């Protein structure tokens, strides 16, 4: 079964926003899914809402996940500091959240099946990123196989689920260039792991450094910095 519907994991960051636009460009009816998992950079949820509204998502849901081991990541443990100016120093950085993409994809699959949405998009990147194990192609291929083995639609053959990671082998510069070509308003995105209370990026965490690298490689100016959160 070929479906015109797709579930897009939308964090509110640059990569997931680009995936949303790619899905729209391919003619998909987009159902956007975001997660509140106790992350310190909660401003991204506001950005996700803005992106879903701006770019015509048919529906946008924000699900709450209570992680059992919140102390395992600096993104969910406010007592720990987010590393700054240390990009690439850790094979798997302290910003890694255990099983995050596994949980996200499982929830997306649980929504995709009743929607008859054959595709799930996510902004995973294995080429120019921080070394997260759940962004590797091996993991995504394994989850796609699981999706088709663990669902009624997959077993009966009414839907062949696909895990779409169109940015997987792109550099950050290529991602920025693709997003610009698709017309993404970068002001609607937030990438920082440790923003100020006003939502301003720190400029020094891994995600900020990667974003800056991407804009530099693409020869473009990042228009996302805001002085306040509306």
Outline the structure in words.
- It contains seven helices and five strands, in the order βαβαβαβααβαα.
- The protein has 230 residues and is α/β, with parallel strands linked by helices.
Itemize the secondary structure elements and their pairings:
Elements lengths: L4 E5 L4 H12 L3 E8 L6 H12 L4 E6 L35 H16 L3 E3 L15 H13 L2 H5 L5 E3 L7 H10 L24 H13 L12
Parallel strand pairs: 1-2, 1-4, 2-3, 4-5
Helix pairs in contact: 1-6, 6-7
Total strand count, please? 5
Q: Topology as H/E string?
A: EHEHEHEHHEHH
- Quickly count the helices: 7
Shape: globular
CATH architectural group: 3-Layer(aba) Sandwich
What are the main properties of this structure?
230 residues, alpha/beta, Rossmann fold, 35% helix
Q: TL;DR of this structure?
A:
The chain contains seven helices and five strands; from the N terminus they run βαβαβαβααβαα. It is of the alpha/beta class.
């Amino acid at each position: 079964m070929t479906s015109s519907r797709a579930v897009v994991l939308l964090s509110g960051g640059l990569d997931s926003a680009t995936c949303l636009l790619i899905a729209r460009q391919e003619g998909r009816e987009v159902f956007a899914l975001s997660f509140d998992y106790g992350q310190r950079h909660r401003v991204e949820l506001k950005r996700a809402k803005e992106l879903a509204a701006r770019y015509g998502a048919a529906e946008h849901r924000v699900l709450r996940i209570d992680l059992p081991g919140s102390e395992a990541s600096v993104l969910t443990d406010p007592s720990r500091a987010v590393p700054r100016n240390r990009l690439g120093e850790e094979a798997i950085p302290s910003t890694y959240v255990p099983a995050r993409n596994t949980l996200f994809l499982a929830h997306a699959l649980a929504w995709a099946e009743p929607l008859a949405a054959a595709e799930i998009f996510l902004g995973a990147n294995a080429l120019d990123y921080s070394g997260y194990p759940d962004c590797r192609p091996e993991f995504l291929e394994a989850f796609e196989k699981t999706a088709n083995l663990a669902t009624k639609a997959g077993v009966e053959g009414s839907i062949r689920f696909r895990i779409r990671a169109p940015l997987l082998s792109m550099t950050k510069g290529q991602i920025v260039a693709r997003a610009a070509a698709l017309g993404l308003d970068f002001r609607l995105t937030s990438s920082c792991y440790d923003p100020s209370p006003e939502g301003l990026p720190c400029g020094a965490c891994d995600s900020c450094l990667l974003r800056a690298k991407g804009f530099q490689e693409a020869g473009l100016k990042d228009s996302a910095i805001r002085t306040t959160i509306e």
